[in-house]
TrEMBL record:
Keywords: Hydrolase, Thiamine biosynthesis. It comes from Halomonas urumqiensis. Belongs to the TenA family. Catalyzes an amino-pyrimidine hydrolysis reaction at the C5' of the pyrimidine moiety of thiamine compounds, a reaction that is part of a thiamine salvage pathway. This is Aminopyrimidine aminohydrolase. One of its GO terms (molecular function) is thiaminase activity. Residues 11-219 form the Thiaminase-2/PQQC domain. The lineage of its organism: Bacteria, Pseudomonadati, Pseudomonadota, Gammaproteobacteria, Oceanospirillales. The keyword Nucleotide-binding does not apply. Pfam families: TENA_THI-4 (PF03070). It catalyses: 4-amino-5-aminomethyl-2-methylpyrimidine + H2O = 4-amino-5-hydroxymethyl-2-methylpyrimidine + NH4(+); thiamine + H2O = 5-(2-hydroxyethyl)-4-methylthiazole + 4-amino-5-hydroxymethyl-2-methylpyrimidine + H(+). One of its GO terms (biological process) is thiamine biosynthetic process. Pathway: Cofactor biosynthesis; thiamine diphosphate biosynthesis. The keyword Hydrolase applies.
Length: 222
């Protein structure tokens, strides 16, 4: 008893490290990532974000307190009003226009990950859903920090992916990440071992699907 969010990471260490330190991340940090791989990733991430917005709408539906409902609403607004606009701008800088985005076929990795999150939320409760979302929300912040601590990482104009790292190292994003970890800490504090084990399975599967998402980008897979 008395679990914390970091216990989920500790329970899934090999998968978590494989996600945080994936070749896609390493190459992005070292500025050796092929631009076609990055473009493929950006396009699929547009589809990912749309389903992620739906997951926040599901979180609103699964909320039983006003505080949780407001949190889900803020998350949905942040994706629709900020993240997606930023992402479309980012895509434009990489030569992908809105018409390209509108007609995109969805890759298997995008399909598997996003529908896993939505299904987990549908059949479970709000905590199950947040645990399925956690590798995304918390992992990207940790990736930015890991890249900054890694000697092979290039920052500034020497790296065309610098703006991507900057987005996730920002105080705003790191603050949101810590707030999410605290939310988990509060909910996990009174989880039973059986409940924690069920949540660990969700966390591990979502992390494995994040690994597949990086690999899909690297391989430009459909
Ligand atoms: C495959 C994939 N996984 C995680 C993220 C990161 N991410 C997506 S939405 C969001 C915050 C929403 O307010 C964050 C951190 C991504 N872009 N793509």
């Amino acid at each position: 008893m008395g679990y914390r969010f970091t216990d989920l990471i500790d329970a899934c260490k090999p998968e978590w490290r494989a996600y945080i330190e994936h070749d896609f991340v390493r190459q992005l940090g070292a500025a050796t990532l092929g631009d076609a791989s990055f473009r493929h990733y950006l396009k699929q991430d547009y589809l990912f974000l749309i389903h992620f917005a739906r997951a926040y709408a599901l979180a609103a539906y699964k909320s039983s307190t006003l505080a949780d409902l407001r949190q889900a609403h803020e998350g949905l607004k942040a994706i629709l009003d900020v993240e997606l606009d930023l992402h479309v701008g980012f895509c434009r800088e990489w030569g992908i226009n809105e018409d390209d985005l509108a007609g995109l076929p969805e890759s298997r990795a995008t399909l598997a990950y996003t529908r896993f999150v939505l299904d987990t939320g549908n059949r479970g409760d709000l905590l199950d859903l947040h645990v399925a979302l956690a590798p995304c929300l918390i992992g990207y912040g940790e990736i930015a920090n890991w890249l900054n601590a890694h000697p092979a990482t290039l920052r500034g104009e020497a790296n065309p992916y610098d703006a991507w790292i900057a987005m996730y190292e920002s105080d705003e994003f790191q603050g949101a990440m810590h707030a999410e970890m605290e939310w988990h800490d509060t909910r996990l504090a009174d989880a039973t071992p059986a409940r924690f084990e069920a949540l660990t399975r969700i966390f591990r599967d979502a992390t494995r699907l994040e690994i597949d998402f990086w690999q899909m980008g690297l391989d430009q897979a459909d």
